[in-house]
């Protein structure tokens, strides 16, 4: 089974406080890593550190260590989504979906189909700024339905989603790992779906 991510002895400090230290883990194809911890524990910092958005005090991160081709272009093969939905308030739902796809390098995406998939048909012409938080989240999440990246790193993907939205997202996660992908996610809520390879990591006041 191939390893998609291998991290060793990561350490991070913010404002003089150690968030985590000596943190090591690896992620195999088909695995889900659920990162837990209280508000301010350092979950987002860890995810942002993995993709190079926050500087670490120590440690090494190897993407796709057993696949040289993927490793060299790991950014192309890794999907990172931050905890904000990042939709453009003045663009319609449909325009947002199309724009996101374009920014991902896709020109031939069926934005209508994607809106239907995430349950937003009928709202396509409304400016995204007029949609609810959960509806905006659904727009942002359409990326997961065409992403070819094997590794997904998702900060609070369930935020603002209702029960059906959470179920829909977990179904998509299950497809992704069945296809040999892997997922790292943060969430304050327990998963209602139990993947076979579920790893849990709690960041707790600087201790693991
Ligand atoms: N840019 C920054 N500069 C200084 N400190 C920061 C910065 N961003 C975050 N922090 C601090 O780092 C700590 C960890 O923040 P982080 O956002 O990683 O927590 P979290 O576990 O994701 O929390 P939550 O569950 O509330 O989203 C917090 O104490 C926060 O105040």
Summarize the structure in words:
- With 208 residues, this protein is of the alpha/beta class.
- The chain has a single domain, classed as 3-Layer(aba) Sandwich (Rossmann fold).
- It is built from 6 helices and 8 strands; from the N terminus they run βββαβαβαααβαββ.
- It has a 5-stranded parallel sheet with strand order 5-6-7-3-8, with helices on both faces.
- The longest helix has 16 residues, at 163-178.
- The two termini are 26 Å apart.
- Residues 14-15, 19, 37, 39-45 line the site of adenosine-5'-triphosphate.
> Strands of the largest sheet, in order across it?
5-6-7-3-8
Number of strands: 8
Largest beta-sheet characterization: 5 strands, parallel
What's the number of domains? Answer: 1
CATH class: Alpha Beta
Q: What does the average pLDDT come to?
A: 94
């Amino acid at each position: 089974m191939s390893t998609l991510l291998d991290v060793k002895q990561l350490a991070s400090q913010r404002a003089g406080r150690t968030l985590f230290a000596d943190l090591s883990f690896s992620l195999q194809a088909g695995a889900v890593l659920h990162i837990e911890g209280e508000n301010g524990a350092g979950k987002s910092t860890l995810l942002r550190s993995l993709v190079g958005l926050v500087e670490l005090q120590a440690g090494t991160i190897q993407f796709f260590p057993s696949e040289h081709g993927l490793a060299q272009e790991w950014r192309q093969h890794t999907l990172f989504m931050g905890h904000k939905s990042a939709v453009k308030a003045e663009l319609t739902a449909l325009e947002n979906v199309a724009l996101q796809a374009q920014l991902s390098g896709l020109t031939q995406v069926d934005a209508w189909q994607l809106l239907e998939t995430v349950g937003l048909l009928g709202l396509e012409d409304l400016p995204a700024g007029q949609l609810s938080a959960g509806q905006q989240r659904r727009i942002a999440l359409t990326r997961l339905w065409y992403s070819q990246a094997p590794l997904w790193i998702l900060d609070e993907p369930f935020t603002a989603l209702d029960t059906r939205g959470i179920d829909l997202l977990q179904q998509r996660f299950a497809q992704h790992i069945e296809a040999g992908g892997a997922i790292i996610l943060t969430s304050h809520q327990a998963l209602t779906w139990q993947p076979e390879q579920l790893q849990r990591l709690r960041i707790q006041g600087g201790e693991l």
